[in-house]
C-alpha cells in the first residue's frame, strides 16, 4: 500500500444551457504536502478527464472562509462565480481555461515525489481517512463522512451505477516519511 496524500472526487453533471460538465465534489491534499504541486496535478488530471469525456466545464464550491483555496483556484485560472448569500464560492473552468488546465497534465502524472492515478477499490480505507481529515478542515462533523465500505459500494461496485470517480496522489516508495 502506498500512502495517499491527496484525493479529487468528482462526477458528471448536466445542464440544459451548457451541456455536459463535471462537478468536483472534493479536492484534498494532506497539510504536509500542500504547496508541492499535488493539488495542481490533481486539478490538471480532473481537467484532462473532463475534456477527454467531451465535457465543457468543471465546477466546484469552496467555502468562503477558505481564502487559501480561493487564491489557489484563482491562480489556476478558475472563474469565481460567487454567491455570498450561501457563504461559499462557486468556481468554474470552461472553454480556454479548461483546455489550458487539461494541457498541463499528461495522462500519467508522475513527479519526483508523488504519482497521480485513478482511485482503486483498495484505496477506499485511505480515501475515507482523507475525507475525514477534509471534513475536520472544513469544520464539518467527521461523523457525516461515508465509510470505506460505502465508498467501495458506490464508487467501485456495479460499473453501470458508479456514483463518483476519483484520482489520488500517492507518495512514491522512496519518498515515504
TrEMBL record:
Where do the N-acetyltransferase domain residues begin and end?
1-112
Instruction: Read off the SUPFAM superfamilies from this record.
Output: Acyl-CoA N-acyltransferases (Nat)
- GO molecular function list: N-acetyltransferase activity
InterPro entries for the chain? Acyl_CoA_acyltransferase (IPR016181), Diverse_Substrate_AcTransf (IPR051016), GNAT_dom (IPR000182)
Q: Which domain of life is it from?
A: Eukaryota
Give the UniProt family note.
Belongs to the acetyltransferase family.
Matching entries from PANTHER family are given as: DIAMINE N-ACETYLTRANSFERASE (PTHR10545), GH14572P-RELATED (PTHR10545:SF29)
Q: What is this protein called?
A: N-acetyltransferase domain-containing protein
